[in-house]
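Hi W., the cobalamin complex you wanted:
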Amino acid sequence: MSGDIIELIKENVIQGRVTRDDEGIEEGTIGQPGVTELIKEALASGVDVSDIINNGLTASMKVVGQKFENEEYYIPDMLASAEAVGAGMQLMEPYLAQSGVKPKGKVLIATVKGDLHEIGKNIVSILLRGAGYIVKDLGNDVETQDIVKAVREEKPDFLGLSALLTSTMVTMEDTIKALEENGLRDKVKIIIGGAPVSEEFAREIGADGYGADGFHAISVFENLSAGNSATP
Ligand code: B12
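Structure:
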């Protein structure tokens, strides 16, 4: 029974179906239970929370990631799946403390000062939440000093910085310098992303890593959490 429902959760995440009213990638699924109904059923029948997270949600996002890499899925498909995972995680939040499943880490994320682009940052946030991180999104066009303040107060494990303009890339370096000046640089791992930035640029400005997209960011975070370099 537990295996069947986990398989159904997995299938429905891949189909991007949050509730029974959603149509999946394949037609004809409307009316069948979606991820939220299935998770409620699983929790009511005592299925292990870590089983739902690891074998239902996380495993299915790996499949979605592969489909995205193979260009079988596009951004809207990936977002639908990530939203299904996010909705499922929200339902399980009250059970997480009891189950001993710990969040993988806390992430603060922001688009730097002067830059209004937020779509990519939002996708990365959804995917990170789906992968089991607590994410606090500071928004876009965020003042450097507000980022410094948030790092001081929130004590995150990771800081994600996004920039889409060549003119705002430099602000990432300013942010790292401001964290240094405030004695906070070694308290947080910094990962940068956005179309104009690169691995090389990350190294140049003293960031810990670079994420090309949300899935890549997850593997970079996992490598850094394990004490490895961002790209082993
Ligand atoms: C949508 C858009 C806008 C929207 C933004 C709306 C919003 N709410 O975000 C609006 C209309 C506001 C806008 C404004 C401007 N834009 Co604009 N915009 C775009 C556009 C078309 C798409 C960007 C996007 O959302 N891509 C989709 C997302 C999913 O991709 P992404 O952002 O790259 O994110 C992925 C990765 O980069 C990575 N990632 C991103 N952030 C992070 C963070 C971390 C921590 C990690 C790990 C990974 C990561 O993961 C994401 C998911 O895969 C691009 C062109 C393009 N094709 O990219 C131009 C573009 C970025 N804009 C551009 C410009 C010039 C402007 C304006 C200056 C235009 C103007 N003259 O007013 C203004 C600047 C406003 C400002 N101060 O920021 C240029 C930048 C050129 C440059 N080299 O600097 C581009 C490239 C268009 C072009 N070809 O000229 N823009």
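The beta strands are 106-111, 134-137, 158-162, 189-193, 209-210.

W.
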